[in-house]
Structure formats: C-alpha cells, structure tokens
Design brief:
This protein is α+β, with helices and mostly antiparallel strands. The chain contains two helices and four strands; from the N terminus they run E-H-E-E-H-E. The chain has a four-stranded antiparallel beta sheet, covered by helices on one side. Strand 2 and strand 3 form a beta hairpin. The longest helix has 21 residues. The chain is globular and about 60 Å long. The relative contact order is 0.25.
Length: about 140
Amino acid sequence: MARGIDPRAVETEHERKSIGAETTFAQDLSDGPRLRGALRDICREVGDRMTRAGVHARTVAIKLRYSYFKTITRQATAPTPVQKGEDIEEIAGRLLTAVARPDDQFRLLGVQCSKLSAEDGTQGAFWSIHDLYDPPPRA
C-alpha cells in the first residue's frame, strides 16, 4: 500500500454522518434581522437537503466565527428527530440567542445536523420539539 498498490476495490459509497451549510458574510453582522435572516435561509437549505436525502437529525449545531476570527460551536439534541427547516431554525435560533451579545460581530454562520436516521421518531413520541426548551409544568 505504501507504493500505491492495493488490491481492494474502491468504495465510492459511504454513510452520511451530517448535513450542514454555512455562509461567510461580506460585512460582519451583529445579532439582528440580517443575521437571523441568514440563519433562516441556512436552516431551510439544510432542511431541504435532509428531505431530499430522506433523513432526520437528532442533533443541531451552530458554528459562529467572530470578526476577530475566533470560532465557536454550540449544539443541542432534540427529543425527537427533526427535518423541517423551521424546526432546525428554532433550535439553532435558541443556540444563537444563548451566545450572541449586543456588541458581537460575526463573519460566518453555519448550521449542521447530525445523528442522522431514516426514521422520523414520531411514533410513540411523548415530546415535541418545544419540550426541549419549554418542558411541561409539573403536576
């Protein structure tokens, strides 16, 4: 193998581990309508790609690069798998809200969905996506 000789067949198929998208802004953005609009567009794109692939995700992550090039990621795992852009946006938006400060400037925003499965997890599910952040009151 060190000499480039390998009798094994080339494998072109592989199991997808995640689906995501990101965008770099021409101008740094603070948290506001333009950043949230970009988040919505990215989440819709990721949701459309997941729908075409026929998969749902349990984990949603955001990637943020600040104007001074520090990059952070934050993620959350949903109680039931998500696929729609609106559901992805809800989770990603809450992650963004948790880290964004009024004076922050961002040059890149990305969303990645992982822990993919072909099942939507709705059969027998007791929770909705909203329960991830707003648990029902105790009786």
